[in-house]
Amino acid sequence: MQGFLLVDDRDGRMLAEITDPAEALRVVDELTEEHPELAGALCLVRFDGHQGSLIGTETTTRVRPLT
Prior knowledge:
Blueprint: E1 3-8, E2 13-18, H1 21-34, E3 42-47, E4 53-57, E5 63-65
Antiparallel strand pairs: 1-2, 1-3, 3-4, 4-5
């Protein structure tokens, strides 16, 4: 099983669980456009059968792996 959790780093709330990688990035882009205050606070956590990894966002909405 593979998927992504969209997390608000300000308080650790899980905002969404998404299974498709393209959909996960689209959701992050849409949220940062609609709510600019979230731009530096969103984190995608990828989970699968392994340890998982974090994908962070910056205000430029550039996404990069942090593993």
